[in-house]
Amino acid sequence: MTEAPHQPDQTKASSTTRAAQATPAPPKVSHPSESARAALGKAARDRAPLTSHADLETADRGDPISLLEGQAASRVPELVPIRYGRMSGSPFAFYRGAALIMAADLAKTANSGLQVQLCGDAHISNFGVFSSPERRLVFDINDFDETHPGPFEWDVKRLAASLAVAARGNGFSAKKSRSIVTGAVGGYREAMRSFAAQGNLTVWYSHLDMDDLMAQIGDQLDSRRKTRTLAAVDKARSRDSVQALSKLTTTVDGHTRIVSQPPLIVPIEELVGDDEASATYDALRGLIRSYRRTLQWDRRHLLEQFKLTHVARKVVGVGSVGTRAWILLFEGLNGGDPLFLQAKEAQASVLSGFTKASGFKNQGQRVVTGQQLMQASSDIFLGWQHVDGLDGIPRDFYLRQLRDGKGSAVIEGMLPDALAFYGRICGQTLARAHARSGDRVAIAAYLGSKDRFDQAIAGFAETYADQNDRDHAALADAIATGRVLAHTGL
After folding, report:
1. What is the distance between the alpha carbons of residues 310 and 232, in angstroms, rounded to a whole number?
2. What are phi and psi of 292, to 5 degrees?
3. What confidence tens digit (pLDDT) does each residue in 189-240 have?
4. What is the DSSP letter of 407?
């Protein structure tokens, strides 16, 4: 039975749910002077000289495939081969799914000690466009599954190495690849120095609007590429719940139903059977009421005007394949007024074993709070939940809209000048995200005005691209020998 619309949610959370969703107690806050903060950043060079960031320790590194197998233990078994199949497609595809492997490597590198809220997986395909609550397209980081506190340079190295891997995959020369990486890291450093000179509110409200970005790059593109870029932006604008309705559903006996496309999309009735599905829907409606309590009051009121009509499991991403992800179809005023939410399992961050604890018991809440801290604007339905899975095992989830103007650049085949520009705006965007959560004055002082940090990170990125090639080959060998099974799921 569905709830009547417009009724405020009066259901009280259980003590277990409240405990799982408890927010860490805020630390005591000090307010050192600007000069003291700058001195802290300069002092960090004694602990981690700028040139030390070029180093990558590979001795006693261990088997990268064992790390992937360890992750597979907590994932849906029949979906794990899809993850391996997607990662095996190219070195860049492997890199996208190898955040845990790189986290283990980063833990052995120089540590500045300058903490920020990390994305945790800041490769270039995790930047893109989406609609702000004001319905304007903005450019920002758009994946936070691995977000966690840590030293700022870990995100910078993850971004830089992704550019080196992508440039190599696109056939660029070593010289061109290094130029692309140094440009991106230089963009980060210069943006951080700019933010260090700005007031707190100016930094907090800073964002990158796509209309402004298109005005910046319009003169740099020839007519053909400008037309393609504008078409990609227009396509992103059209990606919403109404568009998803036409792509993902059909009408059965007068009811809108998500189309089965196993194993990539499987309605819940096919997973548990029709008889159990009815009880599952009753439980889901209760869980949605609990999830609503993690939203702002006005957004709860909006969500209460929609009723849940259908649910399906969906395979998403590369590194996330095998974690549990669901798409939930809601109906508003009528069948032409849909809302699609995605509920995605949140496991412990890949960084959690290598740095201080995040303080959150609920991993979904960790993702949501990290995203809200780093993004200039976030999905209005971004919230979290703690549930017992279909197998009875308790798990954490975060929820957001499935499609809300989301789009990302196609990296494969991108020309050198385009990748260089894209890398630079990603670097600037990452700096803005770090400036919101970390000590931007200390980080800027640590980085300095010269390009020593840029050059060191470029050296690291090239070395890591070599290592990534070897790891990708190791996965190919594991597939060839039957150690792991792989397929695309198509």
Report:
1. 30
2. -55, -30
3. 999 999 999 999 999 999 988 777 777 766 666 667 667 777 777 776 777 7
4. B
Q: How far apart are CA 65 and CA 101, in angstroms?
A: 9
* Contact in structure between 260 and 270 (CB atoms under 8 Å): yes
296, 302, 432 from 340: Cα distances, Å? 19, 14, 30
| Predicted local distance difference test score (pLDDT) of residue 71 | 96
In contact, 165 and 92? CB cutoff 8 Å: yes
Tally of CB atoms within 10 A around 262: 13
Token pair belonging to 12: 């009280």
Q: Find, among 20, 402, 477, 59, the residue nearest to 248 by Cα.
A: 402
Helix ranges restricted to H, 122-173: 152-169
CB-CB neighbours of 376 under 10 Å:
19
Supply the pTM of this predicted model.
0.91
The list of the chain residues with pLDDT below 70 reads: 1-25, 217-223, 225-226, 236, 405, 490
Question: Is-contact 268 311, C-beta < 8 A?
Answer: yes
CA 271 to chain centre: 27
Residue 225: burial class (beta carbons within 10 Å; 0-12, 13-18, 19+): middle
pLDDT digits (tens, 9 = 90+) for 401-439: 998 767 778 898 889 998 999 999 999 999 999 999 999
Let me know: does 118 contact 148? Beta carbons within 8 Å.
Answer: yes
Give the length of the chain: 490
CA dihedral 158, 164, 170, 175 (to 10 degrees): 160
Whose structure tokens read 């599954």?
A: 145
C-alpha dihedral sign at 309, 312, 316, 322: positive
Distance CA 261, CA 315 (A): 10
> Count of CB atoms within 10 A of residue 334's CB?
7
Chain centroid offset of residue 466 CA: 24
Q: CB-hemisphere CA count at 13 Å for 389?
A: 19
Angle at 148 between CA 142 and CA 154, to 5 degrees: 85
> Per-residue pLDDT tens for 68-107?
999 999 999 999 999 999 999 999 999 999 999 999 999 9
Name the residue among 320, 305, 423 with its Cα closest to residue 367. Answer: 320
Give CA–CA dist 182/175, Å, rounded.
Answer: 11
Q: Report residue 363: phi and psi, to 5°.
A: -70, -25
- At position 358, the amino acid (one-letter code) is S
Longest dimension (CA), the chain: 70
